[in-house]
Specification:
Layout lengths: L1 H42 L6 H50 L4 H118 L1
Helix pairs in contact: 1-2, 1-3, 2-3
Length: 222
């Protein structure tokens, strides 16, 4: 009986180790597929302007990091609780088993519990795998939607930039066309100002001459 318990315990440990390896391989494979998907998406836009390429690379890195973080969180949320519960139950069961080796009836009950627990672990593994595939599918779909939305925003930004440059060019052309008449008007005003300044100087001179004549007349009368 004791050998059977040890065998089942070893099988359970090996099963857990295999399950963990399968999860790691599946996750790594999914992430590699996502990296290839992201690279393919961004290669389509290599022909765009240089400044957009730098922005796309920054966005790719940020989204990749965020996606890996979400995957890790989903895996931790899906896998850690069942595994932690299993380890706790296995520890409790091991202690109980050591205390009840003298009782064949108790030992049989523990073997039954271990077998049931083994089946539960397998069902947990299947459930976790299904949930992981579902979550990865949802995240891939959300990632695609967000990527397309960001790309659409950049395309709209590029269109708006072209429209702004076109309007600016039209404004410059309009300004250039009005430059010559405006310059002529400024030249005419400058000439008029110079003429007024000249007339003012002559008026001051005439006024001074008149004052001088008045002073001379006053002196003669005295």
């Amino acid at each position: 009986m004791r050998k059977d318990v040890i065998t089942i315990k070893n099988n359970l440990s090996e099963g857990i180790s295999t399950l963990q390896k399968d999860f790691k391989f599946s996750i790594k494979e999914k992430l590699n597929e996502l990296d290839m998907y992201i690279d393919d998406k961004f290669e389509v836009f290599d022909s765009h302007q240089e400044y957009l390429k730098e922005l796309f690379n920054n966005i790719k890195t940020e989204l990749d990091n965020q996606f890996k973080l979400l995957i890790k969180q989903r895996i931790d949320d899906s896998f850690d609780p069942p595994l932690r519960q299993f380890n706790e139950q296995l520890e409790i069961l091991t202690k109980t088993n050591l205390q009840s080796l003298e009782s064949s009836k108790s030992l049989s009950q523990q073997i039954t519990i271990l077998e049931s627990l083994s089946r539960n672990v397998n069902s947990i593994g299947e459930l976790t795998t299904d949930k992981l595939d579902k979550n990865i599918g949802e995240l891939s779909e959300n990632f695609t939607k967000n990527t397309n939305k960001i790309i659409g925003n950049f395309i709209n930004l590029n269109k708006d930039t072209k429209t702004f440059l076109s309007n600016l060019k039209a404004a410059i052309i309009l300004l250039e066309s009005s430059k010559t008449p405006l310059q002529n008007k400024l030249n005419a005003q400058e000439t008029e100002i110079k003429t007024l300044q000249k007339n003012l100087i002559e008026l001051k001179k005439d006024n001074q001459d008149l004052l001088n004549k008045i002073e001379k007349l006053q002196k003669k009368e005295e």
